[in-house]
Structures are given as C-alpha cells and as structure tokens.
Amino acid sequence: MRVSIDVDRCQGHGRCELIAPDYFVVDDAGVGQVLRDEVADADRADVEEARFCCPEQAIAVGD
Ligand code: SF4
After folding, report:
1. Residue of 2, 28, 41, 1 whose CA lies nearest to 14
2. Of 10, 24, 30, 58, which sits with the fewest C-beta atoms within 10 Å of its C-beta?
3. pLDDT recorded at residue 11
4. What is the mean pLDDT of residues 43-60?
5. 61 with 51: CB under 8 angstroms?
6. Best mutation site among 7, 8, 13 for ligand 1, i.e. most ligand atoms within 8 A of its Cβ?
7. Can you tell me which residues the record assigns to a coiled coil (predicted)?
8. Torsions phi, psi for 14 (to 5 deg)
9. Angle CA(40)–CA(46)–CA(50) in degrees, nearest 5?
C-alpha cells in the first residue's frame, strides 16, 4: 500500500503526524509531508486511521 498527501488540500493540522509519526510530519512551512510512501503491512491500520482523521481529506492511499 502506498500513501500520499495532497499538499494543496493540507492545512497543517498535524493529526496525521500524531497518529502515524513514522509516516507523516508537518514541515516548517506548516504543510504535511509523507516520510515513507510505502506502507508496511503492520502499519496499515495506523495510516488508514490518519487518512480517516484528516479534516481536509488530503491523505490518499492506494496500491
Ligand atoms: S491531518 Fe491532513 S490536513 Fe492535517 S497535516 Fe495531516 S495531511 Fe495535512
């Protein structure tokens, strides 16, 4: 599974970073960035939760 952030939608809330800090960080400009775009099977639930909790629906996951 792969994950990405639409930086045009992201508002820098940082919920993704709180939920899955191995995969997301809010940079110095206040924009969410993906740290690792290939999601390990063991981390899928955390990344899916981050996607669900993103208020801007900026996180996308796919194969
Ligand atoms: S939760 Fe969504 S809007 Fe907030 S920083 Fe993460 S990707 Fe951006």
Report:
1. 28
2. 30
3. 97
4. 98
5. yes
6. 13
7. none
8. 85, 10
9. 120
Amino acid 63: pLDDT: 86
Residue 47 has pLDDT above 90, yes or no: yes
pLDDT digits (tens, 9 = 90+) for 13-44: 999 999 999 999 999 999 999 999 999 999 99
CA-derived radius of gyration, the chain: 10
Residue located via tokens 């981050």: 50
pLDDT at 12 over 90: yes
Alpha helix (H) ranges present in the chain? 15-19, 44-53
Burial category of 24 from C-beta neighbours within 10 Å (exposed 0-12, middle 13-18, buried 19 and up): buried
